[in-house]
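Morning, I've got a small favour to ask if you have a moment. I owe you a coffee for this, so here goes:
>
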Amino acid sequence: MSQPEWFNKPPQTEHPTPPHQDNFYFNLTPPNVASIWLALDPVDEENGCLRYSPGSHHKGIRPHNRTSVLGFSQGIADYGPQDQANEVAVHLQPGDAVVHHGEVIHRADPNRSSQRHRRAFAMVFEGVSCRVDEEGRQRYQESLQSQHQNMGLETSAT
């Protein structure tokens, strides 16, 4: 396991989770990486369930651009109505889990519930053959640093 992640989408959260591919951030090659997303609360459309684009992991990484969502520096630039029409919404109960490949496109809507959280714990697993694509990682870090500078945030070299 390379990294645990904690997600909390409180009631009436305004921002969606933009469509993205985890390996855009991870930059692993070969892309033998999977995330296990474990629901800690009931998850449905009202509180921002995950939405997947089936088969998208077979098509490679799509271009990502800056987003305005805190915690998501980059999202898929050209995600449109055709993509949304093919999505599968995943409803989960506490203790249920979903596993997705690092290059599958996924997103979530805002939490429109007035009272319910959408909390989850995720674990990311990398295959033993995975290596960081240093050129890809450098491009991502440079993009992130430029984005932070444009926002007036202090940056440091990586």
Observations:
- The chain has one domain: 3-133.
- The mean pLDDT is 91.
- The longest strand covers residues 118-126.
